[in-house]
């Protein structure tokens, strides 16, 4: 079962470290200093928003029934062998029609800086241990890279310990 | 609501209409702000960092060097105090050097205008003054003042001579009496360097010592400004953007130090004809922030706005120049000025803004510099002549100028032999429950002025005498709280009777204003002088008085320093925003609780202004109980 980037919203402190790391991972230089010195403006594909009192990261869910793939008229958006969804490396190039932006239920697709193509999480950011940059950068564990069932087992364990730990 | 001030709201609408970015836009763009910073648990003090520790025990609990959250929070806080101290004392040192240049004959535009204050300060500081001519005494004063900055052997002369004996003892016992203003700032920078002081409690005591130095610097600043420019006396003026005049050359004086603005005030009077030749009806000086407070207090120059709304007077289209010295001057002014045609003129070599016009101001050629600056404003007026302006039609009457000398003079009309007696009698009788000093800034995180206004209404209704300084006083100025009329509207019966008795004894035919404007933020020292005089008259320490302080919308590191010395002086001190210390339970607990046993003062953090007023009222009642005075419930 492939791993997913799962979010523990209550842990986000809004530091935006995930965004910085995502941007750096998608830069030419692949390093913060290098990208800054080169004058690069890489864009993050993970988002952190203030929602009332909460700070909340949001990223592409790589849906199984992905509306962005269905809606992509150009034929750029597709599912890769690792089960992630991207508009890079498909049969066609992205034409910036923004259908994917319009149909994404999470608002996880955005424009590149020039407004010439859609950019989204493509997982082309993993470190040598296979961990995505945003997850690696998250200092509070708000972003978790795990198999869904392993994650939910952990949640259950936590809930049960809280409820019954003292029994 | 972004601001309680209708003039600010009108100009914000104008900014939105024209697509001009303001501090509120930039704040929104910064959200969410970093939680580590908000908690104080990030450290950038060495190149192995930046480090931050997890507030959830689910990440690193220590920085690379091993610093814990306690260490980081304490280090960050005391560094902020050191920065605030550097700012206030830099301001004071600037005045001391100006006085020195004056007596050396190098700064002809700076005569000593208040010889009585010179002699009063000399007497307090134990300077030999009998038969000494004013010029010679001023020279000794400048030297004596400058001696507070470098490292000496003894506690600072301006510290020990201006507080109660009880405070000196308490500070000595804790080891928080600094021996040099610059040296304690330097010591704090040393202590917060990688691998020096890692003990949170010890760091905080260092911070208190630095805050005592900040108090000392503030007091020097006030004393020297009074000596050079005159001790404020009650003055009537107006406040808010309605003071701008479409047909005049409008010049805003912004920043903190009166050294430049005093000369501009003098020179502007001589340049009216030049302005008229350019087609203007005259020159209209207005104030912003604490430079505005300084020239309001001494010359009745009307303040246009304060703190976070500093960009907005330009949106009227009528502001020809904004002349800035230093502190609290947003670099964003230059961008707004590009849209409005206002000349932003920086004047201090150590405080320049890219894109501004810089006129290097020197005390040696002050009048010439001031003329050059005013000419730039007249030129800008020429360029905007005939263009429509939108000046918000809001302004309030202001009665300001309440130096301690002015307050004592007013009180002496009731009791010439013992001027403080009427105040003390009324505190004892309960007509005045206590005193609250409102100080500090505006902060974009809370609706501008709202906390000040709500708290003043709540406390005044319960017979608490209100003093204000800095941008807090500015808020009260713009909202009409510095007027006798506000007494009728908001004061409780006891407070109203006392303010009316003093006002009528002084021939005002009505009360003193609801809030007494004591000056700029440096002039918080005036409030201490008043508290010390009352404490000494009663034979108690300032930590026993029913006197509290509040910084309901504080923003700057200077405010952090002032708040800390208010606590060191023994005052329960309210903060209307949460300071970045919650990452350490140790530091938070000490500041809001443990420090009370050491200094008498402590911090009350409360973001709801009504609850904050209630807590301060409770603190006043606790003090009244301690003095065996009758108490009241909320």
TrEMBL record, chain B:
It comes from the Bacteria. [4Fe-4S] cluster 1 binds at residues 34, 42. [4Fe-4S] cluster 2 binds at residues 43, 46, 51, 65. One of its GO terms (molecular function) is nickel cation binding. Signal peptide: none annotated. It catalyses: CO + 2 oxidized [2Fe-2S]-[ferredoxin] + H2O = 2 reduced [2Fe-2S]-[ferredoxin] + CO2 + 2 H(+). [Ni-4Fe-4S] cluster binds at residues 256, 290, 328, 441, 471, 521. InterPro entries: CO_DH_a-bundle (IPR016101), CODH (IPR010047), HCP/CODH (IPR004137), Prismane-like_a/b-sand (IPR016099), Prismane-like_sf (IPR011254). Gene3D superfamilies: 1.20.1270.30, 3.40.50.2030. One of its GO terms (biological process) is response to hydrogen peroxide. Its EC number is 1.2.7.4. Pfam families: Prismane. Coiled coil: none annotated. Keywords: 4Fe-4S, Iron, Iron-sulfur, Metal-binding, Nickel, Oxidoreductase. Its cofactor is [4Fe-4S] cluster. PANTHER family: CARBON MONOXIDE DEHYDROGENASE, HYDROXYLAMINE REDUCTASE. NCBIfam families: CO_DH_cata (TIGR01702). This is Carbon monoxide dehydrogenase. It comes from Desulfotomaculum copahuensis.
